[in-house]
Amino acid sequence: MWLRLRSPNRNQIARECSGEGESSRSIHPLNLLLGGRMKEMFLAIFTWLHLIATVLWIGGIAFILFIALPSAKQIMGSDAGKLMGVISKRFTLVANCSIALLVLTGAAMAVLNNRFSSSAILENNWFIILVVKHILVFTMIVIHFYRGWILSPRIMRTESWQRQASMQRLSMNLVKGSCP
Question: In the chain, which residue ranges form alpha helices assigned H by DSSP?
Answer without folding.
Answer: 10-18, 29-34, 36-63, 69-76, 80-112, 125-146, 152-157, 161-178
